[in-house]
Amino acid sequence: MPRPDTQRDYFAELYVAAMFGDAGWSVYFPRRDVGFDFVVSKSIGGIVMLRPVQVKGLYPTAPKKNKSTYGYQGTLTAIHPEMVLALPYFAATERGVAPEQIAYMPRREVRPRSRGGFRCVPASFVAGHAVPRGSFVGYFGSKGLRALESSSWAQGTETKWLRKVGAT
Questions:
Q1: pLDDT tens string 101-121
Q2: CA-based torsion, 105, 107, 108, 112: positive or negative
Q3: Nearby residues of 45 by Cβ (< 8 Å), 6 or more positions away
Q4: Domain boundaries, the chain
Q5: Banded pLDDT at 125 (limits 50, 70, 90)
């Protein structure tokens, strides 16, 4: 099935990879895409953190209505306990610009659906724009990238770590 004009094949993946690079992570692209779009690594306190990353860009159409939950629903080609599901949210009104928001979601926030596939909805959709939902705010933008540096990120105790480093 052809991709809509509002979607760009690799733009979202490369943009997210650049954000990781800007935050000091090394980015490794696979020779073949067999699950993850790329893998990132960073040495934190002498410990090398590795995070496999899947990117799922969200490109709303202009007539999209407001929704209380907005995010990714579908299949994932690979799952890993330390993975990142990166969700770049684009605006409904402008094509070709950078995403307005990026959520860096841990595996535990990616829920299986009863009818197959997965669901991760950390935002709302209001007036053509994604808005982070309350408990998910810490996964967005630079706070979300900083949370990935915690060795406990995948286990769910990064909130305490974020308070310790003053990111919340």
A1: 999 999 999 999 998 999 999
A2: positive
A3: none
A4: 11-165
A5: very high
Spatial separation of the C-alpha atoms in residues 41 and 48, rounded to whole Å: 7
Would you state the pLDDT for residue 151?
A: 85
pLDDT at 163 over 50: no
Q: Which long-range contacts (CB under 8 A, 24 or more apart) does 140-147 make?
A: 140/101, 140/102, 140/103, 140/104, 141/101, 141/102, 142/23, 142/167, 143/167, 143/168, 144/102, 144/103, 144/104, 145/19, 145/20, 145/23, 145/104, 146/23, 147/104
- CATH class of this structure's domain 11-165: alpha beta
Helix (H) or strand (E) run with residue 144 in it: helix 141-147
